[in-house]
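Possible regression after last week's pipeline update?

I re-ran a chain I had predicted before the update to compare outputs. Posting the input and the new output here so someone can diff against the archived version. Not blocking, just want to make sure nothing changed silently.
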Amino acid sequence: MERAVRELWAESRDLLGLGSPSPDDTAAATASAVPRADLPPTPLAFLRDHVSPGRPLIVSAAATRHWPAATLWPTDSYLTDTLRSTAVSLHLTPDGRADALAPHPRRPSSKCFASAHVRRVDFPAAIELIRGSDPAAGLVAYAQQQDDCLRGEYAAVAGDVDAHVPWASEALGCLPEAVNLWIGNAHSVTSFHKDHYDNIYAVVSGEKHFLLLPPTEHHRLYVRDYPAAHYVAEEGGEHQQLRLKLEMDEPGRMVPWSSVDPCPASPEEMAAQAAAFPLYFDGPAPIRCTVRAGEMLYLPSMWFHHVSQSPGPNGLTIAVNYWYDMQFDIKYTYFNFLRSLEFDDCSSGKADALEEGDPEEKND
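New output (post-update):
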């Protein structure tokens, strides 16, 4: 079974024109880059060459050059002045890893799925906390609300970007279900997950760094059930003195999530990860791409992605994403069939890798 699945990984990448370099083949990994376009595609070309086959695409800054946000948002004062009286949802973690695995607070040798502590603060205070984020101090702030927030709590600046992406809307036959604004710094990292949306991701300031795996490589991420937990703020002190602790959800629930950390912090952790998850670390290198300020990434639905970021000159990484509801067609059926295939390397552990719900979904 494993040999057949590995052949599927290679064939699917070849059909997408992305190649299957080994983890140690840096030159080949660089060559198997996500396609880039100097100009936005026509709706027909986008549908034919990217949506239908499920192939990512990066579009140059020509796609957003007309946005007022392209020049206004990277400045030091525009967003703070415009949103001065606006309360926003700020996600707080001790280490910048929200919706990710963390040591279980009662059984440190085990893992749990940890969600951020969310606090409503005025926008200028939110920016101050984001800029001052420091894992060494136990507090990292990220504006990453997941509820169409650009058209909600950030409505005062929503007109600075397009309400939708015209060539994508025409090709996909619908308008975006949600448009979100993300503001963070280099300390915020998004763990491997997938979404049931076609995603158009536009960076306005700084850069976003993606590790990508096609849906066919589901088994490589060792998706297992983890008990859910959330960070809470301990009483006392102002925002600057907030201390966070992890508590288990009550009533308890389980969350299917990727077990793999592709960027361990130490050689010892890398060795432990590689030993525990050989399908990831011994398989083809993940597809890497960087989306720079002004550029757009089309990320097809069901693609697994891990995201880190670098701030711009203003000390912030700012992005907007458009979520288009995916088509639950024959490709989704094939994915569920593939997910139902079990072999020993990825089925051991606390929970089965074969979850019938909607696992590893998150925003970036």
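Follow-up from reviewer: compared with the archived run. Residues 348-357 have pLDDT under 50 and may be disordered. Marking as no regression found.
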